[in-house]
Design brief:
Blueprint (H helix, E strand, L loop, with lengths): L9 E5 L10 E5 L21 E2 L2 E2 L118 E2 L10 E2 L2 E2 L13 E2 L13 E3 L5 E3 L15
Parallel strand pairs: 1-2, 7-8
Antiparallel strand pairs: 3-4, 5-6, 9-10
Length: about 250
Amino acid sequence: MRPWGYSSRTVGYDSRGYSSDSSRTVGYETRCYSSDSSRTVGYDTRGYSSDSSRTVGYDSRGCSSDSSRTVGYDSRGYSSDSSRTVGYDSRGYSSDSSRTVGYDTRGYSSDSSRTVGYDSRGYSSDSSRTVGYDTRGYSSDRSRTVGYDTWGYSSDRCRSVGYDTRGYSSDRSRTVGYDTRGYSSESSRTVGYDTRGYSSDSSRSVGYDTRVYSSDSSRTVRYDTRGYSSDSSRTVGYETLGLQQQ
């Protein structure tokens, strides 16, 4: 396993031990190719990612397209871009709406301004500046809120995130706390998670992947896939074997 790299308030890495960092950025994938840019997230469901400033453009076949402040992609290798927009699903259909995220893992997508709403059963729910979903097809939305777990139970608090992969959730205002072993930790204004029950945190950031790896950034929670967590302000350091690095 290759060592991870870190940069203040930055996350960049993949599931093969290669990492790249850029300030206020999350960029990673699960195949060992990663690219980072400021205030950007780029990833797909196959391990390929591409990043551009405030932009995401990619798909699950390794083809990516980027446009500033834009997201448009699906899991079949087709991507569509629109400024400040996210719209895609896991069946190759994409839909775009300004400043919006709406998608699920069954090929259904739903868009709403500044919103995320989806789950792993093909049901999506949208609310302005909201995230609410779980891995059983139940979703719950609250303004500027995240609350869910992997057993179909969700809990909501304004500007809060609290959940784990065991069906227990905890809420704190402007907080994220959870891991894949039932342990939770908290960081301000951050959401980070993936499709295997692992999560990562970064201030004003989203970081997650589809292969059980997690990422961390400033005012963040750091942990690995063995249920151990560690914290370090404005730092990135992580790995996938349960050994932590700061």
